Amino acid sequence: MAKTKTTTKDKAAPKGKGKVLDQVASPSRINIGIANEDRKEIAEGLAHYLSDAFTLYLKTHNFHWNVTGSMFNSLHAMFMDQYTEQWNALDDVAERIRALGYNAPGSYAEFIRLTSIREEEGADGVPDWKGMVQQLVAGNEAVCRTARSVLQTADDAGDDPTVDLLTQRLQTHEKYAWMLRSLLE
Fold first, then answer.
1. How far apart are CA 12 and CA 153, in angstroms?
2. CA-based end-to-end distance of the chain
3. How much is the pLDDT for 125?
4. 33-183 belongs to which CATH class?
Protein backbone atom coordinates (compact mmCIF):
# COMPACT_ATOMS: atom_id res chain seq x y z
CA MET A 1 0.00 0.00 0.00
CA ALA A 2 1.50 3.33 -1.04
CA LYS A 3 1.91 6.08 1.53
CA THR A 4 0.04 9.28 0.83
CA LYS A 5 2.20 12.38 1.14
CA THR A 6 0.81 14.75 3.75
CA THR A 7 1.30 18.45 3.18
CA THR A 8 1.46 21.23 5.74
CA LYS A 9 -2.01 22.28 4.55
CA ASP A 10 -3.33 19.06 6.12
CA LYS A 11 -1.72 19.65 9.50
CA ALA A 12 -3.35 20.59 12.78
CA ALA A 13 -0.69 23.25 13.37
CA PRO A 14 -1.82 26.82 12.61
CA LYS A 15 -0.51 28.76 9.67
CA GLY A 16 1.09 32.12 10.35
CA LYS A 17 1.09 35.06 8.02
CA GLY A 18 3.88 35.28 5.49
CA LYS A 19 7.09 33.32 5.46
CA VAL A 20 7.56 30.90 8.35
CA LEU A 21 11.34 30.41 8.23
CA ASP A 22 14.39 31.86 6.55
CA GLN A 23 16.73 29.43 4.87
CA VAL A 24 20.29 29.59 6.18
CA ALA A 25 22.19 28.07 3.26
CA SER A 26 21.29 27.75 -0.40
CA PRO A 27 19.45 24.50 -1.14
CA SER A 28 22.23 23.31 -3.43
CA ARG A 29 24.76 23.47 -0.56
CA ILE A 30 22.78 21.08 1.65
CA ASN A 31 22.71 17.45 0.58
CA ILE A 32 21.73 15.26 3.52
CA GLY A 33 19.57 12.89 1.49
CA ILE A 34 16.29 14.75 2.06
CA ALA A 35 14.78 16.69 -0.85
CA ASN A 36 14.85 20.48 -0.49
CA GLU A 37 11.03 20.73 -0.51
CA ASP A 38 10.78 18.08 2.19
CA ARG A 39 13.44 19.75 4.34
CA LYS A 40 11.52 23.03 4.12
CA GLU A 41 8.20 21.40 5.00
CA ILE A 42 9.74 19.54 7.94
CA ALA A 43 11.52 22.66 9.21
CA GLU A 44 8.30 24.67 9.01
CA GLY A 45 6.45 21.94 10.90
CA LEU A 46 9.19 21.88 13.52
CA ALA A 47 8.89 25.67 13.85
CA HIS A 48 5.20 25.20 14.74
CA TYR A 49 6.13 22.40 17.12
CA LEU A 50 8.87 24.52 18.74
CA SER A 51 6.39 27.37 19.17
CA ASP A 52 3.84 25.09 20.81
CA ALA A 53 6.51 23.53 23.03
CA PHE A 54 7.90 26.92 24.08
CA THR A 55 4.43 28.27 24.82
CA LEU A 56 3.65 25.19 26.93
CA TYR A 57 7.00 25.54 28.72
CA LEU A 58 6.23 29.18 29.56
CA LYS A 59 2.71 28.36 30.73
CA THR A 60 3.98 25.51 32.92
CA HIS A 61 6.63 27.78 34.45
CA ASN A 62 4.03 30.52 35.06
CA PHE A 63 1.79 28.03 36.84
CA HIS A 64 4.73 26.77 38.92
CA TRP A 65 5.27 30.34 40.16
CA ASN A 66 1.60 31.05 40.80
CA VAL A 67 -0.04 27.82 41.98
CA THR A 68 -1.89 28.06 45.32
CA GLY A 69 -4.30 25.97 47.32
CA SER A 70 -4.46 22.48 48.71
CA MET A 71 -2.40 21.03 45.87
CA PHE A 72 0.42 23.59 46.14
CA ASN A 73 3.26 21.29 47.23
CA SER A 74 2.67 18.49 44.75
CA LEU A 75 1.84 20.75 41.79
CA HIS A 76 4.69 23.18 42.47
CA ALA A 77 7.14 20.25 42.31
CA MET A 78 5.42 18.55 39.35
CA PHE A 79 5.32 21.77 37.33
CA MET A 80 9.02 22.37 38.05
CA ASP A 81 9.94 18.87 36.87
CA GLN A 82 7.91 19.34 33.70
CA TYR A 83 9.09 22.83 32.76
CA THR A 84 12.73 21.90 33.42
CA GLU A 85 12.50 18.89 31.12
CA GLN A 86 10.62 20.94 28.50
CA TRP A 87 13.23 23.72 28.60
CA ASN A 88 16.05 21.27 27.99
CA ALA A 89 14.22 19.67 25.05
CA LEU A 90 13.62 22.97 23.22
CA ASP A 91 17.27 23.18 22.19
CA ASP A 92 17.18 19.82 20.39
CA VAL A 93 14.21 20.95 18.29
CA ALA A 94 15.78 24.28 17.37
CA GLU A 95 19.04 22.56 16.47
CA ARG A 96 17.18 20.10 14.23
CA ILE A 97 15.63 23.02 12.35
CA ARG A 98 19.14 24.43 11.90
CA ALA A 99 20.47 21.06 10.70
CA LEU A 100 17.77 21.09 8.02
CA GLY A 101 19.11 24.45 6.81
CA TYR A 102 16.66 26.92 8.31
CA ASN A 103 16.65 29.50 11.09
CA ALA A 104 14.67 28.50 14.16
CA PRO A 105 12.04 30.92 15.48
CA GLY A 106 13.23 32.56 18.65
CA SER A 107 11.10 35.57 19.55
CA TYR A 108 7.84 35.90 21.45
CA ALA A 109 6.28 37.45 18.34
CA GLU A 110 7.22 34.43 16.23
CA PHE A 111 6.10 31.95 18.86
CA ILE A 112 2.74 33.70 19.27
CA ARG A 113 2.23 33.73 15.49
CA LEU A 114 3.10 30.04 15.08
CA THR A 115 1.62 28.39 18.19
CA SER A 116 -1.72 26.63 18.49
CA ILE A 117 -1.77 27.14 22.28
CA ARG A 118 -3.59 30.15 23.68
CA GLU A 119 -1.39 32.63 25.50
CA GLU A 120 -2.25 33.40 29.13
CA GLU A 121 -2.62 36.81 30.71
CA GLY A 122 0.16 36.30 33.24
CA ALA A 123 -0.16 36.87 36.98
CA ASP A 124 -3.50 38.69 36.71
CA GLY A 125 -5.18 35.89 34.75
CA VAL A 126 -3.97 32.84 36.66
CA PRO A 127 -6.68 30.21 37.24
CA ASP A 128 -7.04 28.02 40.32
CA TRP A 129 -5.03 24.79 40.44
CA LYS A 130 -7.72 22.79 38.62
CA GLY A 131 -7.83 25.36 35.84
CA MET A 132 -4.05 25.22 35.61
CA VAL A 133 -4.09 21.45 35.31
CA GLN A 134 -6.85 21.56 32.68
CA GLN A 135 -4.89 24.08 30.62
CA LEU A 136 -1.70 22.02 30.86
CA VAL A 137 -3.57 18.87 29.78
CA ALA A 138 -4.90 20.77 26.77
CA GLY A 139 -1.44 22.23 26.07
CA ASN A 140 0.31 18.87 26.19
CA GLU A 141 -2.34 17.38 23.92
CA ALA A 142 -1.89 20.27 21.44
CA VAL A 143 1.87 19.68 21.42
CA CYS A 144 1.20 16.00 20.70
CA ARG A 145 -1.07 16.81 17.76
CA THR A 146 1.51 19.14 16.24
CA ALA A 147 4.31 16.61 16.80
CA ARG A 148 2.27 13.86 15.13
CA SER A 149 1.63 15.93 12.02
CA VAL A 150 5.32 16.82 11.64
CA LEU A 151 6.37 13.25 12.44
CA GLN A 152 4.26 11.96 9.55
CA THR A 153 5.84 14.47 7.15
CA ALA A 154 9.33 13.55 8.37
CA ASP A 155 8.58 9.82 8.09
CA ASP A 156 7.29 10.21 4.53
CA ALA A 157 10.54 12.04 3.64
CA GLY A 158 12.81 9.46 5.30
CA ASP A 159 13.99 11.95 7.94
CA ASP A 160 14.77 9.46 10.70
CA PRO A 161 16.46 11.94 13.10
CA THR A 162 13.32 14.12 13.16
CA VAL A 163 11.09 11.05 13.53
CA ASP A 164 13.21 9.88 16.47
CA LEU A 165 13.18 13.32 18.12
CA LEU A 166 9.42 13.71 17.78
CA THR A 167 8.74 10.14 18.92
CA GLN A 168 10.61 10.90 22.14
CA ARG A 169 8.76 14.19 22.58
CA LEU A 170 5.41 12.51 21.98
CA GLN A 171 6.14 9.93 24.65
CA THR A 172 6.98 12.69 27.14
CA HIS A 173 3.98 14.91 26.40
CA GLU A 174 1.52 12.02 26.34
CA LYS A 175 2.84 10.99 29.75
CA TYR A 176 2.51 14.56 31.09
CA ALA A 177 -1.07 14.80 29.77
CA TRP A 178 -1.95 11.48 31.42
CA MET A 179 -0.38 12.43 34.77
CA LEU A 180 -2.12 15.81 34.80
CA ARG A 181 -5.45 14.35 33.65
CA SER A 182 -5.27 11.85 36.52
CA LEU A 183 -5.35 14.73 39.01
CA LEU A 184 -8.78 15.75 37.73
CA GLU A 185 -10.45 12.35 38.14
1. 12
2. 41
3. 73
4. mainly alpha
